[in-house]
Amino acid sequence: MTTTFWPNAQHWSCEIPLNTPHPRLDVLEAHGVVRLRDLDFVIPAHEYLHLEYMDWKSGGDTNFAPIATADGELDCRGFWNADNEHTDKDARFTSNAALCPTIRDYVADIGVNFGRVRTIKLEPQNYDTAIRSFHRDDNNRFNPETDGWVVRSWLELTDNPDSYMLLMDCGSDGLPDRSTEVRVPLHRGSRFVVDTQRLWHVVVHNGDAPRYALITSLESGPALDLWIANNAQ
Ligand SMILES: [Fe+2]
Question: From the CA of 136, how far away is ligand 1's center (Å)?
Answer without folding.
Answer: 6
